[in-house]
Amino acid sequence: MMTFFEKQTNPLDQAHHMGNLMVDNMYTSGTAGKKFFTHLKENDTFLASRCKKCGTTFFPPRLYCEDCFIEIPEEDWKEVPAQGTVRLFTIATLNTFGEKLDEPKVIGMIDIEGTDGAMLGYIETDETNKDLIGSKVKAVLREKKDREGTVKDIRYFQVL
Amino acid sequence: MSDTKIEGQPGYAPGTHVSGRDIRDKKIPYTWWEVEAQYAYSLGPANARFLKELKEGKIIGRTCKKCDRVLVPPRMFCEWCYSPTNEWVYLKDTGTVETFSISYLDPDANRIEEPILVGVVSIDGASPKHGFMHYFGEMKPEELHIGMRVKAVWKPEEERTGSVRDIKYFKPLKDGGDE
Amino acid sequence: MNKVAVIGGGMTLFRRHLNETGKELSFLASKMALEEAGIQNSDIDMVVMGSAPCAFDGIHMKGENLLDGTGAKNKPYVRVFNGGGTGVFAPIAGWWHVASGVADVAMVVCEEKMGSCYPHPQTAFQTIWDPILDRPLTPNLVWLFAMEMNRYMTRHNIKKEDIAQVAVKNKRNAVGHPCAQLPDENITVEDVLNSEIMAWPVNLLDISPPSDGASALILCSEEKAKEFTDDPVFVDGVGWNIDSTMWTNRDLYFPDYVANAAKMAYKMAGIKDPRKEIDFAEPYDPFTYKELHHMEGLLLCDKGEAPVLTREGVTERDGDLPICPSGGLLGVGNPIAATMGQKVCELYWQLAGKAGKRQIPGDPQVGVGQAWGDIMQMGTVIVLRRG
User: Are B8 and C126 within 8 A, CB to CB?
Assistant: First the structure.
């Protein structure tokens, strides 16, 4: 068994090989996502989809109901305002790499009006000391000409 | 989506085809993401010694007394009998081509003009069929064949880093060489 | 052990890129399988998800991501994967759910979205190699196949035209498959031999394409099957076996691990002479020679004999031993795990007499499906029999 415990005293012997994952990813938005983002490029409202059987209104909209496991047809999609209520929030002071941010960022989970769903988003507010839970917020979108059909078209949510 | 009913199963073929052109022209919304993760792979004692010896211009293996086996690349345990291996043993830098390919593809599957000659070399002094993958050079593609005797061409000492790439490639062993 | 029946299958279109998300593809395949079985998702007790490396879809822990698309919300659910072996291993995992009695009805869903991976799925394949010993040489997976094919050809003195015949047969068989990515009814051996050389001895038409797609299969106990169908198909045997990653320390001309998996499955199925007792097979065919290599691994012929049988037409759909009547991976496409559609769903559809234009003549009774993966390591085998 000794071979497993040979001492490595030279740190060079403890060397490692570096590597990375090298791949990039292109995520198609899917059937529901394509409808949602195509709408968002031209409009300042959101789309949601409603399951006839259980009545759940999905946001972000889905092709199928995950509970009833049935397809949601075209006619059960509806337009909802791009606004909602803060369900949860946190204030981030560090970035992904653990470095201090110049300005703290408020990140929230927003219940979207007229739906049973929610989404993550940045929240813009002057009152960072305030408990934002329950606050009404409205999505601030990119200029229409700059929208590219991704979630980044929603710049942030403004506290009303 | 082609939902036309077809006789037999599968009775239809759900799905929406998107062409490469549709993606290039951004005809469909999509999200792009670049993976930034980096990895540091620990060598472990067997690889550390193997690579250190390569830096010295030598190929080293490990013996398994139980299986009467010489392993290369060396491992600290034998996966046949699942026991620790026993001793370090220097091998020759010559061997035999076990199989090969003449590749017109780079690692990302792009086409290349000058083919890469690559294959498996069983190393003299190791057990039969025991060796590793490497490149071939100083030969025409049509010369390369299974059973060919080859010898390692090393990078100049100062360029070696302790990597399998310290061997540049294997070249033909003209006189056949000894085993 | 409980006897396990197959009562439904489904698969999506296979294409280089599909717009649907992985969840949506899983849903569409599952929906078709439920429709065929004539049951609701609420009838499913447990779900098995099969999907190959996360790096293709680009979603780590993709089993969890895909979950709601498989109808498994708030149910016992597990993802299994062993590279290319997954397409047959996932239904094996589904089988043990039902055979053990923990589930009466289980759904198996397999999904792959290789189109997400840029610049090419091959880029992700680079990261399956040993990062210290192999990756510095920047290997391509096609190299690996090319080296194995070369070894197989050299050992048995096989000609490339005999191997090319596999692409011709499978791409022609795929013409009857609605999901097929590369069907071709006019393809010839010359087309294959004259196609671009990728990594000698592998030409472009020797290779199956990377694909997006999903497939689903519904398994249930014998008792439950009686409620749903008068004409069930049963899983008679399963086997799986794996060799080490030290592929440069062994001879590649014969896949012993496939033979080991086949023996395990045949023993369970009570098959003593596979050549006589098996009516047709769906061996894994990501490359042309792999079909032949795997016919031999499945003990359906002697070592080196598969190309001869192929040349003589024995493996055609109307031959004595039809091989890949679905059109295989070469004709229908290769969304890794989702090839369960060709390797297992097809066995079911053929045995149930539901394969439509692809139906094998003569009432087949026993079929074997097989998948293969990792670094030339994994063999997974399933035997289905008409009840």
Answer: no
- Cβ neighbours of C132 in A, within 8 Å: 17
DSSP 3-state assignment of C21? coil
Sheet holding C117-118, edge to edge: B30-34, A24-28, C117-118
For C190-209, write each residue's pLDDT tens digit.
999 999 999 999 999 999 99
- Distance from the C321 Cα atom to the nearest Cα atom in chain A, whole angstroms: 40
What is the pTM (predicted TM-score) of this model? 0.94
B41 CB neighbours in chain C (<8 A) are 131-132
**Contact call for residues C288 and C329 (beta carbons, < 8 A):** no
pLDDT in tens, B17-73: 999 999 999 999 999 998 888 888 888 899 999 999 999 999 999 999 999 999 999
Full set of structural domains in chain C with CATH: 4-119+209-386 (3.40.47.10)
Instruction: Find all residues with CB under 8 Å of C139, minimum gap 6, and list them.
Output: B107, B118, B133, C126, C129
Distance CA C244, CA C256 (A): 12
Q: Please report, for chain B, the start and end positions of each structural domain, with discontinuous segments joined by +.
A: 44-172
Complex ipTM, two decimals?
A: 0.91
DSSP string, B129-156: T-EEEEEB-SS-GGG--TT-EEEEEEPP
Mutate which of A9, A14, A17, A37 to test chain B, going by most B C-beta atoms within 10 A?
A17
Structural domains of chain A, with CATH: 30-159 (2.40.50.140)
Residues 128-157 of A with CB under 8 A from B: 148-151
Distance, CA of C76 to CA of C96 (rounded, Å):
14
